[in-house]
Amino acid sequence: xxxxxxxAAFTDNTGDAVTMETVVSMTASLKKMSSIQEEIFxxxxxxxxxxxxQLLAGVEESEESRExxxxxQKDEVGRNALMxxxxxxxxxxxxxxxxxxxxxxxxxxxxxxxxxxxxCWGRVDTARTLxxxxxxxxxxxxKGETPVDxxxxxxxxDCIDCLILADAKQDLMSYVNxxxxxxxxSDRELTKKEKNICTSNLSAKSDWIQNVKNxxxxxxxxxxxxxxxxxxxxLSKLSAHSAEMPVKQAGQA
Length: 253
Description:
The chain is mostly helical. The chain has helices at 20-25, 35-46, 49-59, 63-67, 81-87, 91-99, 114-121, 124-132, 147-153, 157-185, 192-211, 217-252.
């Protein structure tokens, strides 16, 4: 599939991804919004970062901002200001909106998030920004499509690579946190030596995630496998203990 041009349209009939002409025409729906919400959308569409900064800095204490959700207003097809900024690839505006309270993982009625729309349009820098701000890689549309699925559908190669790498990193981080929780909950079942082994390995993986540059998907996969192998005897011990707990409790009843 050819990269989308200003006049090209998506063909999946979702109502969430549209032509650039339609993006411009979204200004017609601004009259339905409050004055502040209208200004936010206007600056997002024009890409005026400085004007957006001044607006958000000035409205935080205003009566209007306290009475309504500044970022909850949506255009005629269900996209909020953050989704629109993401779709247009305006990373600085995305960061500013989230910093002032725009929810990064909001979804349209059909399940499209800001990251989904970014993936559709192949906005790699904006995808990285959203991921840094906590965007959910696993969020699904009404068809069960994740952001990486949509980047594949629309042949956005750079975005595919970015999202797959982010998923591999997230998987390793989640596994490290899972093991930490498991160890904390089973602290009494481990010897001092076993605790030290766990602490050392988990600390090493956390340091690797934070400090090593230019990691690949294979690197993240190898690091997880290495951690699993290093802690396998301890994890097996904890799993066996966990399986015995209901039996013991039943015998005590």
